[in-house]
Amino acid sequence: MRSIVLLGGMALALSGCAELFSNEPEIERLEPAPEVFVVDQRQSVRTVTSVRRDRLPGGIVVTAVGRPDVQGYWDAELVPLTEDGPVDGELSFEFRVAEPVLPSPPGTERSREIVAARFISDIQLQGVNRVVVNANSNSRSVRP
């Protein structure tokens, strides 16, 4: 009799466990995130006035000075024109800047200058004879 009660109690306990596990939460499936394309709203600076390179351990820093038409341009960056590296020994960048938020006066030439710099590693410089920075009206280059 004792074994029958014990077996009945175990059966009851196991049926309770089965109920606990039968209410498992649904698995939430994650959908792939939609592709986001960021469009660079910046434009090419009007003129590049100078470009220089400074040697550092592991590469160089290319620094360019640009001059837009009016004061207030910001968010300057030297953007690579090719993702695959140098073309015919030339590594080319576009000097891009964001337009002023508010209308700005022309100001003096010196007050309109904006600076952008980019580190280029020795690995990226393999096969490069010239680093070119392009603007709307001109381009300047340096040797690595």
Describe the structure.
The protein is an alpha+beta fold. Helix content is 17%, strand content 38%. It is built from two helices and eight strands; from the N terminus they run H-E-E-E-E-E-H-E-E-E. The longest helix has 21 residues, at 2-22. It is flat and about 75 Å long.
* Helix count from the secondary structure assignment: 2
Which structural category fits the helices and strands? alpha+beta
Instruction: Determine the strand fraction and express it as a percent band.
Output: 35-45%
Average pLDDT reading: 86
Q: What share of residues is helical?
A: 10-25%
Biggest sheet record = 5 strands, mixed
Q: Kindly provide the radius of gyration, computed on alpha-carbon positions and rounded to a whole number of angstroms.
A: 32 Å
Please supply descriptive tags for the structure shown above.
144 residues, 2 helices, alpha+beta, flat, five-stranded mixed β-sheet, 38% strand, three-stranded antiparallel β-sheet
